[in-house]
Design a protein that fits this description.
InterPro entries: GntR_C (IPR011711), TF_FadR/GntR_C (IPR008920), Tscrpt_reg_HTH_GntR (IPR000524), WH-like_DNA-bd_sf (IPR036388), WH_DNA-bd_sf (IPR036390). This protein is mostly helical and about 230 residues long. About 70% of the residues lie in helices and about 5% in strands. It has two domains: about 70 residues, Winged helix-like DNA-binding domain superfamily/Winged helix DNA-binding domain (Arc Repressor Mutant, subunit A), CATH 1.10.10; about 140 residues, GntR ligand-binding domain-like (Four Helix Bundle (Hemerythrin (Met), subunit A), Up-down Bundle). The protein is globular. The relative contact order is 0.12.
Length: about 230
């Protein structure tokens, strides 16, 4: 793909937000259609007049939002053009963490029950593996690796519901969820002493919606307490 002549250089202050806005607009208006490869990082850097780190951060944010997908050795592709997910993403980026948690609670409680009812054997194994990966990440000293493992677990639960609308909504919240998980992890400090995740995985594998809901409530209640008590 050639670089879009419509891309314009951006100011250095709040450069990442400006880059995100331009890239996102090209996805939403169809300039970069579904399943097409976007310009390379050096091409975007030259067109936008910003540093490579700024471009990389902006592309990563859109990956987290579910709009872009990196393919090893083949560049970055447009994965989704959902206006719903993009709207949720834009709004959530500047939302208070308690508001984000309220929305998370609504989606994740519904997802817990639905995943326990609807999961396939393959879904159950993916959720169980994601829980194991999250548990292993608890022992690491790398906060970024833990946040990534936690998000992967929650997305596996969402996928197990079989509900594409719920998946689109959650994808739009990804950046805000990541921010909330990172802040809760920073404030709490003891990842092993955080209930609910392993119990949720077990309930989904067992096909027990009530136990799944109780497990989701357990970790959401702790998360709310941590956020409410922050300095």
């Amino acid at each position: 793909m050639t670089v879009d002549a419509g891309l314009t250089t951006v100011r250095t202050d709040r450069a990442c937000d400006a880059v995100i806005a331009q890239l996102e607009q090209r996805i939403l208006d169809g300039t970069w259609p579904l399943n097409t490869r976007i310009p390379t990082e050096p091409e975007l850097t030259a067109a936008l007049g910003v540093g490579r780190n700024t471009v990389r951060e902006a592309v990563r944010a859109l990956e987290h939002a579910g709009l872009l997908e990196p393919r090893r050795g083949d560049g970055t592709y447009v994965r989704a053009t959902s206006a719903l997910g993009a709207a949720v993403y834009r709004r959530a980026r500047q939302t208070d963490l308690l508001h984000v948690l309220d929305v998370r609670a609504s989606l994740e409680r519904a997802a817990a029950e639905a995943a326990a009812r609807n999961r396939t054997p393959a879904d159950a194994e993916r959720v169980a593996q994601a829980a194991r990966d999250r548990r292993a990440a608890c022992e690491l000293g790398d906060p970024d690796a833990f946040v990534a493992a936690d998000l992967a677990f929650h997305r596996a639960v969402i996928a197990a519901t079989g509900n594409p609308v719920l998946a689109d909504l959650y994808d739009g919240l990804t950046e805000a969820v990541e921010r909330s998980v990172a802040e809760i992890d920073r404030l709490h400090g003891d990842r092993a002493d955080f209930p609910g995740h392993d119990e949720l995985a077990d309930a989904i594998v067992a096909g027990d919606p009530q136990a799944a809901l109780a497990a989701a409530d357990a970790y959401l209640d702790v998360a709310r307490t941590i956020i409410e008590r922050r300095p």
